[in-house]
Specification:
Length: 917
C-alpha cells in the first residue's frame, strides 16, 4: 500500500475503526464540484472572469488539492490524538508524526495548504491567486500577521515533524498536486490561470459548498479499516450514491428573452399598465443591462414589473434565480405567497428551490407547510413547482437556492467582513437582484447597500431597485455605485461619461433610470390616469382626532390613524375606544405576538382590503404605527397621521383612496389626510425621537394644503431632501436640528466602515486583501443595521398549575417537560418583540440575564427542544403581567410588562430604589 494512502482526512470519534483516507476525501470533493458546476447558471461562471473550460478545470483542481494541508505532521498528530494505533501506523509508513509541537495552532490546515502550494520552501510556487483560494476554504482567508508570513519557514516542525526527514512529505505533496492536475485536465501548474479577486471569491464559495457536501457522512460515509486498500474500487458508485442522496432540485432556467403584453397577461392574469409596459420595453431593448431604478406610485404593480423583468434578464443573461429583498421580516412574510405563486408559474417542467431568508423564517406557517412538503416527498411524480430543500436551510447557505425572498439584510451581509461571505457572493452571482422600498434605508444601511451593489456590478449581475419615494441623492449614489464599477471591472475602462446630464437631479415622475453598457438613460412614464388630489389639514390634540372621525364617518366609511410610536398608538387607541362607542376600533403594531399580529392583519384586510365591502368598512377605524406604511394592500377613506419625513408621509397617504370603489360615503368622496400634532400644536416628542427634528421641520415647511398623487411625489421628496436649500428656515431650533442630523449621519457612516468589505474598485489582487479585522462573532442581521438590535421573547401565560399556555387558550404546555417538535413550533411562534427601551446597551444585558435566570428556574428543560434553543421565555401571570427585575448597583429596578391581545405589550417602571412609581 502506498504510504500516501495511510494519511487520514477524517475519523469517527465513537468508532475507532471508521476513517476516511485523505485521498478519498479529495476525490469526493473533486467529484462533487464537477456535479455542482453542471448545475451552475452561466452568470456564475461569467462572474468569475474565467473562460468556461478554465473555470471548470480550476475548480476541479482546487477541490482535488484543497486539503493538502492535512498532509502535514501537525494535522496527522491531531487526527490520531485518540488512536495510538493509527499514530504508529503513520510513523511505520515513514511519516514523522510527533506528539509534542512547539507551535500548536499556528498552522490550521487550510492555511498550511495555502503555504505548501505557495512557499518557496515547497516545490510548486503555484500562482498566489490559486493558493489563496485553498487558504480561504474554511471561510476566512489568510490574514497577514508577521513580517514573513511563510508558514513553512516559520513553523517547519508542524509540516515535517523532523526537518531531516521531510522528503516523504514533499513527495506526498507532489503526488497530491500531480493527481489534481491529471484529474482536472491540466498538464502542468503553469497552465493554471491567474484568477481575479472576483473569481477567487466565486471559486472559494464553490469550494466551500463542495467541501461541506463531501464532508457530510450521510452522503459520503466513512469507511471501515477492513475495507481493503483498493480505494479506487469505491468509484464511481460512491459519488453516484452521495449525489443521489443529496437529491438537489433542478436548477431554474428562464427561456424568456423578451416579453410582450400577452406573455405578461399569461404570467400574472392581467394586462400590464403603462408603468409595467414601459419597464418591460426598456428591459427588452437593453443590450448590456445593468442597474434599473423604478420610481413609481404606491400600488401601481412595481413588484410584477420587476418579476417580469427578472424573467427576461435571467433568460438573456443566464441567471439562475431571483433574490427579492424587503425592509423587514413582516414585509418579507407579506409578499412570500405572491412570489411563491410566481416562482411556481415560471418553474415549468422542473422542481426548483425556494427560501424565505430571515431569522424567523421557520415560524412562517406558509413556509413551514412548504418545508414539510419538501421533506415528506408526498408526491414523487410531481415534475414542476418549487420546494424548500434541506441543504439550503441555514443563514450561510440560503442564498444558494434559486428563489430567495428575505430581508434586505441578506443582501447587505454580502459586504460585511464575515466568515463564509463567499457563499453569499456565489448565491447572488447566479441571480437577478431585486431590492424593494430602497428609500427606506438609513445612512448606515445605505453604505452596505451601495457596496453590495458595487460587487454585483463587478460580477455583471442585473440589479432592480424599486421605490415610490426615492430622494435623488440616493438615486445618484446607487446608479454611480453600479455604473462606475461595471465600466471599470466588466468593460475595463477607467472613466464613465454619462450621456444624460441631469439624470441624477430630475424630479420627473414616474421615472425609470437604467444603465445599458456605457450609457445611463432615463424614461419618464406618461400616465393616462388623472392625479388624485388629496386635501391636507392640520389638527391639534387627541380630541380633534375623535371629532374628525365622528364628523367624516358619521354616514359610514373607514379611517386609518397612524402614530409614530407604539405608546402613542396605544394612547390614541384608548381615547378612540372610549370616545367612539358606535365604531369598531382596531390596533395594529409590532408589539403583538406573531399569531395575534397575523390574525389582526387578516382582520384589517377584511375590513379595509381590496375586496372589503361597504358593510365591513362601516365606521371601522384602524390605529397603528409605521407597520401600516409598507406592503399591506389596504384602502382608507380618511387618513390621520402624526408628522413624519416626506417620503414616509407620501407612503402613508398612498393608502388613502388606494382602490377604485363604486361607493364611498358623501363625506369621504374626496380624500383627506389630517396631520395630527399635540395639544400645543407642536410635533410630539415621540416623533422627534424616532425621526429627528430636522426632517420633520423640513417636511412641515414644504407640506401645503393639497398634494396631487402621483404628480407631486418626486418634487416634494426632492425638496425635503435637497439639503443645499434651507427652505427659509433660519431659527436656532432648526439650525441645531440640522447640526445634529449631519453629525448623526457622519457617525453612522464612520460606524458602518468598521466591518465593510473593500470596494471592487480598489486594487484587490487577492482575496486576502478583503479581510482585516474580520468579524466572526455575533454576526446576525443587526450587523448591517444602525441600532441596538431588538430582544424577542416567547410570550405565554402561566396558570400556576405547572402549565403555560397561549393567550388565546388554544394550547397548553407542561413547563417541566421537553416539548416535542410540534409543541416547540407552536411555542416558538409566540414571539413578541420587547420595546426598544429594553434593547438599549445599558439595559439589554441586564434584561437577558434576568430572563435567562428566570428560564433556568421555570422552564429548565425547554432549551433541550432544538427549536427553542437560545430562546427567552416570558411567562405572564393570570393577570397577563410579568415583573422584570433588573439589577441596578446594590439594588434593582422592577418593570411591569402587561400584554393584552387587543392593545399589545406595554410597560412601566414600578419600583425604583424601593419606591413605587
Amino acid at each position: 500500500m502506498d504510504s500516501y494512502n495511510y494519511l487520514i482526512a477524517k475519523t469517527d470519534k465513537e468508532d475507532k475503526n471508521k476513517w476516511l483516507p485523505l485521498y478519498m476525501h479529495l476525490r469526493d470533493t473533486a467529484d462533487v464540484i464537477k456535479r455542482i458546476i453542471s448545475t451552475l447558471p452561466d452568470s456564475v461562471i461569467r462572474a468569475s472572469g474565467l473562460p468556461e473550460e478554465d473555470f471548470r478545470r480550476t475548480a476541479i483542481f482546487l477541490a482535488a488539492v484543497h486539503d493538502i494541508g492535512k498532509a502535514t505532521s501537525y494535522f496527522q498528530n491531531i487526527i490520531t490524538k485518540n488512536n495510538d494505533e493509527w499514530f504508529e501506523t503513520l510513523n511505520s509508513a515513514g511519516y514523522t508524526v510527533n506528539r509534542v509541537y512547539s507551535y500548536q495552532g499556528k498552522t490550521p490546515h487550510a492555511y498550511a495548504g495555502q503555504w505548501i502550494l505557495e512557499s518557496e520552501e515547497a516545490p510548486f510556487e503555484i500562482n498566489a491567486t490559486i493558493a489563496d483560494i485553498v487558504g480561504a476554504h474554511h471561510g476566512k482567508p489568510f490574514e497577514s500577521g508577521l513580517d514573513n508570513d511563510d508558514l513553512l519557514q516559520n513553523y517547519p516542525q508542524n509540516f515535517y515533524g523532523n526537518t531531516k526527514k521531510k522528503s516523504i512529505w514533499i513527495d506526498t505533496w507532489k503526488k497530491i498536486v500531480s493527481d489534481a492536475l491529471h484529474y482536472s485536465g491540466y498538464e502542468g501548474i503553469d497552465d493554471i490561470p491567474d484568477v481575479s479577486v472576483e473569481g477567487q471569491i466565486i471559486l472559494s464559495g464553490l469550494l466551500i459548498e463542495a467541501d461541506w457536501i463531501a464532508s457530510n457522512t450521510t452522503y459520503f460515509p466513512l469507511i471501515s479499516e477492513e475495507s481493503g486498500e483498493d480505494y479506487q474500487s469505491f468509484y464511481p458508485d460512491r459519488i453516484n450514491y452521495g449525489w443521489n442522496q443529496l437529491d438537489f432540485p433542478s436548477s431554474w432556467q428562464s427561456y424568456v428573452y423578451s416579453m410582450h403584453e400577452d406573455d405578461f397577461d399569461e404570467r400574472f392574469g392581467f394586462l400590464p399598465n403603462e408603468i409595467q409596459s414601459a419597464f418591460i420595453d426598456i428591459v427588452n431593448r437593453c443590450e448590456k443591462p445593468g442597474i434599473f431604478v423604478l420610481e413609481a406610485p404606491m400600488g401601481c404593480g412595481k413588484t410584477e414589473a420587476a418579476l417580469a423583468a427578472s424573467e427576461i434578464l435571467a433568460g438573456r443573461e443566464g441567471e439562475g434565480g431571483v433574490f427579492f429583498g424587503l425592509p423587514t421580516q413582516a414585509t418579507s412574510n407579506g409578499i412570500f405567497n405572491r412570489l411563491l405563486e410566481w416562482a411556481e408559474a415560471v418553474s415549468e417542467d422542473t422542481v426548483t428551490s425556494i427560501q424565505l431568508a430571515h431569522g424567523a423564517a421557520e415560524l412562517n406557517e406558509d413556509y413551514q407547510r412548504l418545508l414539510i412538503k419538501g421533506q415528506s416527498n408526498v408526491d414523487e411524480d410531481e415534475t414542476s413547482g418549487v420546494e424548500v430543500h434541506s441543504w439550503f436551510q441555514g443563514n450561510k447557505k440560503s442564498l444558494l437556492a434559486d428563489f430567495v425572498i428575505g430581508t434586505v439584510d441578506q443582501f447587505l451581509l454580502a459586504t460585511l467582513k464575515r466568515k463564509h461571505f463567499m457563499l453569499r457572493h456565489l448565491g447572488l452571482a447566479g441571480k437577478v437582484v431585486i431590492i424593494d422600498e430602497c428609500h427606506a434605508y438609513d445612512t448606515y444601511m445605505m453604505t452596505y447597500l451601495k457596496q453590495s451593489v458595487r460587487w454585483m456590478a463587478a460580477y455583471g449581475i442585473p440589479v432592480i431597485l424599486l421605490s415610490a419615494t426615492l430622494p435623488y441623492e440616493k438615486r445618484k449614489d446607487l446608479i454611480d455605485a453600479y455604473a462606475k464599477t461595471y465600466v471599470r471591472v466588466q468593460l475595463g475602462l477607467k472613466h464613465l461619461e454619462y450621456n444624460v446630464s441631469d439624470w441624477y437631479s430630475t424630479d420627473r415622475y414616474p421615472l425609470i433610470t437604467y444603465t445599458d453598457g456605457l450609457s445611463v438613460d432615463q424614461v419618464k412614464v406618461s400616465l393616462n390616469s388623472e392625479n388624485k388630489q388629496i386635501c391636507i389639514r392640520k389638527i391639534s390634540g387627541d380630541d380633534r382626532v375623535i371629532e374628525a372621525i365622528m364628523d367624516r364617518l358619521s354616514d359610514g366609511g373607514c379611517a386609518c390613524v397612524i402614530a409614530n410610536t407604539v405608546r402613542a398608538a396605544q394612547q390614541i387607541y384608548d381615547r378612540l375606544c372610549s370616545g367612539l362607542t358606535d365604531y369598531t376600533v382596531m390596533l395594529y403594531h409590532s408589539q403583538f405576538t406573531m399569531p395575534d399580529r397575523a390574525e389582526k392583519e387578516k382582520r384589517l384586510l377584511s375590513h379595509l382590503g381590496k375586496k372589503s365591502t361597504e358593510e365591513a368598512r362601516y365606521r371601522f377605524v384602524l390605529v397603528g404605527t409605521q407597520v401600516l406604511e409598507q406592503s399591506l394592500d389596504y384602502d382608507a377613506d380618511l387618513m390621520i397621521t402624526q408628522m413624519c419625513p416626506m417620503d414616509l408621509f407620501l407612503q402613508r397617504i398612498g393608502r388613502l383612496h388606494r382602490h377604485k370603489r363604486d361607493y364611498r360615503p358623501d363625506k369621504c368622496v374626496k380624500p383627506v389626510c389630517m396631520v395630527w400634532k399635540n395639544d400645543n400644536d407642536e410635533i410630539d416628542d415621540g416623533s422627534k425621537a424616532v425621526y429627528g427634528s430636522y426632517l420633520l421641520m423640513r417636511t412641515e415647511k414644504i407640506l401645503s394644503g393639497v398634494v396631487n398623487l402621483p404628480a407631486d411625489i418626486s418634487p416634494l421628496v426632492q425638496s425635503v431632501y435637497d439639503f443645499s436649500d434651507d427652505l427659509g428656515l433660519t431659527n436656532d431650533e432648526y439650525l441645531k436640528a440640522k447640526e445634529d442630523f449631519f453629525k448623526k449621519q457622519s457617525e453612522a457612516d464612520q460606524k458602518s466602515q468598521g466591518y465593510l468589505m473593500p470596494s471592487p474598485l480598489r486594487t484587490l489582487n487577492s482575496i486576502e486583501n478583503i479581510i482585516s479585522n474580520m468579524n466572526t462573532d455575533k454576526n446576525d442581521e443587526n450587523s448591517v443595521r444602525d441600532s441596538d438590535g431588538s430582544i424577542e421573547v416567547i410570550a405565554l401565560k402561566y396558570d400556576e398549575s405547572g402549565y403555560a399556555g397561549t393567550f388565546d387558550d388554544k394550547y397548553s404546555f407542561d413547563i417541566a417537560g421537553i416539548p416535542d417538535r410540534d409543541q416547540a413550533l407552536v411555542i416558538a411562534r409566540q414571539k413578541l418583540r420587547l420595546p426598544a427601551f429594553f434593547s438599549k446597551k445599558r439595559i439589554a444585558g441586564k434584561t437577558i440575564l434576568s430572563l435567562e435566570s428566570d428560564n433556568m428556574t421555570r422552564v429548565p428543560l425547554w432549551q433541550q427542544a432544538s427549536m427553542l434553543q437560545g430562546e427567552l421565555v416570558m411567562l405572564f401571570d393570570s393577570n397577563s403581567e410579568y415583573f422584570l427585575h433588573l439589577k441596578e448597583g446594590d439594588g434593582e429596578k422592577i418593570y411591569r410588562l402587561y400584554y393584552d391581545t387587543e392593545r399589545g405589550l406595554e410597560y412601566q417602571e414600578v419600583i425604583s430604589g424601593g419606591n413605587e412609581i
